[in-house]
Amino acid sequence: MANGPIERKVSAASAAAYLASTGLLGILAAVQDNARLLEWMPDSLSPFVLAIVPTLTTFAAGWKAKHTPRDARAEG
Question: Which one of 9, 30, 56, 67 is most buried, counting C-beta atoms within 10 A?
Answer without folding.
Answer: 9
